[in-house]
């Protein structure tokens, strides 16, 4: 399945390259339907070129992507390589935290890549939480994200501290002169919300973390404003008018739109013991997946913005839901994905937009359970391991 010769993207890309494809083979090995030799071959393909720990590195590319893969694999033989990678990752995180703190101190707005899941500090935090060896470094990432939720200003207008100065491509854009608020799981505040909540559920919390989760939820409430969906992004005009729901619903995907945001909100409800928020998130996801108009917006079968991502979100959310309604929708949604697969199979082999991701979701749903080191932790859908809560201090707090 998926010979390395078919991997045309950089191997160290978790999103499109060999690293992401290797995750499928890891799952197959742990279910006794694959072989470690196949996993090793894909790991070799993923590390064929020099693995970067530079500016382009993030959870889905470079040293963090390879370290994530090896952690999920859980193979003791990878231990020495992981320890070496962790040294590079710690240096990266320390450097980026320093830059982020300086930016906050200056009162400037962030780029999405500073904090998002794909490239930013949320992705690094997700890796540290999965690795279980974050310690002070994980606490410092959490402390940064708490600060990120505080207010900043555009002129006289107060905006959340995660309001991006850039356009949707994370570069300055005349179409977005005042930047934008991004709510998505992949590039927006949905990712930090899910991560902060998962950390709390895992028993890891820093001072101000519950309040930060609540602030993000309040921003999402404001963006929803009584509607039946959340916008993926909002302009400053939308934000100040308080009526962003005039836009049509986003496609029901993991990366943007109701499913990913609903799962993040459900995790927040669990973390805060806010049963009303949890039930509302589950209800809105149920309404989404039973609305054929929204399902018709799905244009492919991918994890990122297609059927597979929707299914993984619904499966995870259903496991934590108060009733079985979402679980009852899974057979119908699986049929929908299968019909799309038959008509329009994925164009490449990668994880986020290709065949490996689709097969991972199909494999997971067929098995019906998740491993202690879940492959979808990189999507911030797993919720993290459950543990007794405790509070840790980040380094800045200890130095006061």
UniProtKB/TrEMBL annotation:
Superkingdom assignment: Bacteria
Annotated protein name in UniProt: Lanthionine synthetase C family protein
Organism: Actinomadura meridiana
Cited InterPro entries: LanC, LANC-like
